[in-house]
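Write out the 3D structure for:
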Amino acid sequence: MRIEKETSYLVPEGEFPGTITSARLIQDEKNGKTRESIRHTIDLDPIPDEPMYDFKARMDYWETQVSDFVRDAKKLLGCQANELISRDGEIDPDKLSLFEGKRVKFHVVHERRPGHKNAFRKIVNIRPEQEAA
């Protein structure tokens, strides 16, 4: 009998390894204003204590977090991070694919917010997997 795993973005707290499977520029609206962010989608390695789920995590860098994005890009891409930024200082959305396939390790922290059923899952300390030791 085969177990059909469910995909879940409700990642437990803790330290996890995974692979960035998507990196893209997204736009949405908040309070009637369009805003942009860069979103990494990360497929987590199987979690032994959670055999029923394939976990995915999302890490968004909003316009106010550009310095965090640049810092993390340098950690994950090394000198290739320079390719992300055009001569006029814009992030080139076509170059975000440089992140795809990168093995990473990161920590998930749960933040409880009033009015929300599930905790907000915040990814901190993302780094290349080989530097995790």
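The chain has a mean pLDDT of 92.
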